[in-house]
Each structure stands twice: as structure tokens, then as C-alpha cells.
Amino acid sequence: MRQSTVANRYAQALFELAQQHQQVETVEQDLRVVRDVFNQNPDFSLLLQSPKLTKEQKKQLIQQTFSGASTYVINVLCILIDRRRDEEVVAIADAFIELALAARGTAVAHVYSATKLSEADQAALSSAFAARVGKQSLQINNIVDSTLIGGLKLRIGNRIFDGSLRGKLNRLERELLR
After folding, report:
1. Helices 71-82 & 55-65, crossing angle to 10 degrees?
2. Coil, strand, or helix at residue 153?
3. Do you know which PROSITE patterns this protein is assigned to (predicted)?
4. Phi and psi, residue 38, nearest 5°
5. DSSP 8-state assignment for residue 4
6. CA gap 147, 30 in Å, rounded
7. pLDDT class for 3, splitting at 50, 70, 90?
8. pTM summary value
9. What topology does CATH give the domain 5-101?
10. Residue 28 contacts by C-beta under 8 Å, 6 or more apart in sequence?
């Protein structure tokens, strides 16, 4: 998913703050929880965007909902409410997580396959492709795509590795038409 410039800037600022205070892992875990809450409860997002609630009520709701989160995360969420940027929460969380993974030498790989990959297959893909993209390891996000007949597609950042049967047939067709 492509993040907005706004989301990237907030994520970068939060990442630098978390790095200064050695809280990157804590903030990352908290943002994963926040992202999951927003993704799994679309009504929560709608509630925060409601004009019927004041900014103070929205902040209070955030503080109650995420009471176990670090003060950095709570403060950023409150700033987003103040600046009416609460629709950017998930994008900011995603951008921060990518920054944290990059700092650890890890990249996110979206793997599209016809069936769910086993842990062994995911580990093999991680070790095979990590060096090709200049990372130490890959965090595999397996997406089952029923339109794939066979093979895999990997998307790592802005690079796509197409090992699907359809991709191979398309390459063969281009070669034959030359």
C-alpha cells in the first residue's frame, strides 16, 4: 500500500523520537495494536471522524481505548485528532512499522500464492530473496490469491518478482513473438 506524504512525515518524526528514547520496539508493538483496532473496527474510525464528538471527547476515547500504549503513541494520536488527520492513523502505523523493520535490516514481502504457504516455505523464500533486495531477512505476508493457477508473485517494496504460471506464459509468449 502506498502511504501519503503526511503519513510518512508523521511516521518519520515518531520513529526518530522513539529511536532517541530507545522505544522503537515498544512503539512498533503499540502501533500494530492501534492498526489492528482501526482495521478490524471501521466503526471506531467513523466515531473518531464524527462531528458530534468534540476533540476532547475523541482524545478521551483514544486514551481509554489505548490506555496500555506508550505516551508517544497516545500523544501522536491526540495530535492527529487536533489536526483532523485521524484518517491517516493506519497509514502512519504502516509507515512506522516499515521504518522499524528497515532499521533492523528486514523488509516486508507480500507473497501471493494459490494456497497458504507453510512456515518452511516462507523461511525458504525469506532466505532466497532477502539478499536479492539487500536485506538481512524478510517478513512474509502470505496472501492467498485464487486467480493464480500456480507459482508465486512477490512484492517487496516497489519490486515485483513474478514466478506465477501466468507470468511465465506471458514471458514465453513475448519470446515467441520476437
Report:
1. 160
2. strand
3. ATPASE_DELTA
4. -70, -40
5. P
6. 35
7. low
8. 0.76
9. Peroxidase; domain 1 (1.10.520)
10. 18, 96, 97, 100
123-170, pLDDT tens digit by residue?
998 888 988 888 888 889 899 988 888 889 999 888 899 988 888 998
**Furthest CA-CA distance within the chain:** 66
Is residue 1 pLDDT above 50, yes or no? no
Tell me phi and psi for residue 32, to 5 degrees: -65, -40
User: What SS3 state is found at 148?
Assistant: coil
Which ranges constitute the DSSP H helices of 50-164? 55-65, 71-82, 89-103, 119-130
CA-only gyration radius of the chain, Å: 20
Q: Which residue has the cell 532517541?
A: 20
Candidates 39, 126, 53; CA nearest to 91 is 39
Residue the block writes with cell 501466468: 166
Cross-strand bridge partners of residue 139 = 108
Instruction: Please state, as a whole number, how many other Cβ atoms lie within 10 Å of the Cβ of residue 95.
Output: 24
Retrieve residue 64's grid coordinates: 481509554
Q: What is each CA distance from 33 to 20, 154, 174, in whole angstroms?
A: 22, 26, 46
Residue 69 one-letter amino acid: A
Is the pLDDT confidence value at 74 over 90? yes
Closest to 28 in 3D by CA, of 18, 37, 36: 18
Residues 6+ apart with CB under 8 A from 157: 107, 108, 133
